[in-house]
TrEMBL record:
<dbReference type="Pfam" id="PF14683">
    <property type="entry name" value="CBM-like"/>
</dbReference>
<protein>
    <submittedName>
        <fullName>Galactose-binding-like domain superfamily</fullName>
    </submittedName>
</protein>
<feature type="domain" description="Rhamnogalacturonan lyase">
    <location>
        <begin position="63"/>
        <end position="242"/>
    </location>
</feature>
<dbReference type="InterPro" id="IPR051850">
    <property type="entry name" value="Polysacch_Lyase_4"/>
</dbReference>
<dbReference type="InterPro" id="IPR029411">
    <property type="entry name" value="RG-lyase_III"/>
</dbReference>
Amino acid sequence: FSRPIRNLDGPSGRAPTIQQIRNKHGAREVIVDNGIISVSFSSPQGLITGIKYKGVNNVLHPHQRAREYFVPEPYKNTMNPLYLNHTDKFRQYGLWQRYTELYPNRDLIYTIGVSNYSKDWFYSQVTRKIGDSTYTPTTWQTVFHLPYVNMRGSYTLQLALASAAWANLQVRFNNEYTRPFFSTGYIGRDNAIARHGIHGLYRLYSINVPGRLLRTGTNTIYLRQAKASGPFEGVMYDYIRLEEPSRE
């Protein structure tokens, strides 16, 4: 850490600041901060323990719950006063139905660097109701920009689910209509959606993604929950992270 890290220079071109601290657990950490991104390393091991980007706290940290995402307001006729102005507002009945009202014709699109996960990422990817007892699968899009793509390298998509209920989550890159690059298969009997929860059996998928599937510039990850025979089929995300290969 004795020399400036050129490729982490901040908006003013300054070299990163470096400080050593003890975290809340008493362990030593070294923090490198260039004004945009702050990276924490364990000391003396040198392992990355956290990344803070443009004010978003620790994008590496798995909560194993969907608490930090957007939870809509409850219906007045089913409102439980015990959970008004409460941190557990997700416990209100019928919140899953709000997705159809918010996205009646098209699904959620989340743009990295523009969207806010606490306002724009619905707490659960559920089905859309299109009739009295008819439901359809939903496909969410995560849009992001890559200034450089290692075409010969292998990227890693870390996909963590806080809960799954009778779901089949399919992942595609830059083409919504190709065969799924990855599929979880039939997973989950957590009942978290029906039981007004945000946490079930935790699942983590580390998906190897060939660089040839990505492009320099705008990319889109399509997340399709393909099961749709009722209102409670879906998944809750904990975090999604795309890791690039080493440039060395």
